[in-house]
């Protein structure tokens, strides 16, 4: 691809800040999903999520989880995620995040 990097994300084995009660190993956690604006709508997000889903499955996880700004909830639901709840991690009473998960 001559366009260079068009999207990125990270995948981790735990997320104690936003999923403090989760059992270790039951899920992998998707963070920092970003797509270059010029490539929005071309399936980059779907491809990245599918790669994370595959990696999580390979690690023996049953779910792929994430937290996001409320405005992004619809995007992730369209990509197959289910809303779990609205969560405040406790460090700012005005901050809320949507927690979602995808069965893998």
Automatic annotation (TrEMBL):
Gene3D superfamilies with a match to the protein in the record: 3.40.630.30
GO molecular function terms noted in the UniProt entry: acyltransferase activity, transferring groups other than amino-acyl groups
One Pfam family hit: Acetyltransf_1
Domain N-acetyltransferase: 1-103
Keyword entries, A-Z: Acyltransferase, Transferase
InterPro entries assigned to the protein according to its UniProt record, in alphabetical order: Acyl_CoA_acyltransferase (IPR016181), Bact_Acetyltransf (IPR050832), GNAT_dom (IPR000182)
Top-rank taxon, per record: Bacteria
Protein name: GNAT family N-acetyltransferase
UniProt organism field: Salmonella enterica subsp. enterica serovar Ohio
